[in-house]
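[Q] Does anyone have a clean structure-token version of this?
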Amino acid sequence: MGTRIPLPKESMMSKILSFGRMIKFSHTIFALPFALSAVILAVHQKYELNAWDLLWVILAMVGARSAAMGFNRIVDAQFDAKNPRTTQRAIPSGEISIRQSIVFVICFSALFLLASASLSIDCFYLAIPVLFLLFLYSYTKRFTSLCHIYLGFAISLSPMAAWIGITKTFDWQIIMVSIALLTHIAGFDILYACQDYDFDQKEGLFSIPSQYGIEKALQISAFLHVLCFFCFVTISFVFHMNIIYWVAVMIIGLALVIEHMIIKPDNLSQIPIAFFHINSGISLVFLMGILGDVLLCRP
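[A] Here you go.
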């Protein structure tokens, strides 16, 4: 009778899924539509779209976000292990080791730099400080309650990066798309942080909810989302959008109102629904509005 070879404890696919859960790969849907919208707007501005450039832009987005999230999970592992809401994350639960996470971050950082270099040498030079800015976010909660704004800023670089990657130049017009993304991300990150109000206060971590209270945090989040809606409206004038985009903006405005109606200071149970379903929907509606407008309403 032949010797039976033991099967590995987990397949390669299960490990890949574990890494995907660790970095919440599904949350790429928040920022990627804004980057793709920047690509569409660049093409509409008569810039030529090279299929390879589009591929490198997408790979750069995946690489940058994956590296940044992996780095964040490493840096925050000690806090995740203490927080009842996060104890089941991959590193504190032992599903993925710190060493494996470091290799993961190195690989996706390399992907980001490679994709940037493939777009242009200028993109490569810009990618290095961008990677530093993305990694720095993981430490902001230790010293400033503006961490949510910083997160929004870091992610808001993606539309500008996509624009530069396609056009090989910078244009002030794309800044409005980035500001819309900044206020969108910062606003809902404040809502998300309300779940950790008690933990952040206990551990001395900075966030707007832990520093100013949940009720004030909800008001600040609402203010940021009012600014966000104003940015979406302004984009229409900056890029001369038409009816399809305006319909998308009205849907986004309604979604933002619903988001803030279902979350109350004394009832935060709807935050997971608002965080993923509503906010991912807003990103996709924005992309569909841009795409539909350019395809159907332009000569």
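[Q] Thanks! Anything notable?
[A] The CA atoms of residues 137 and 230 lie 26 Å apart.
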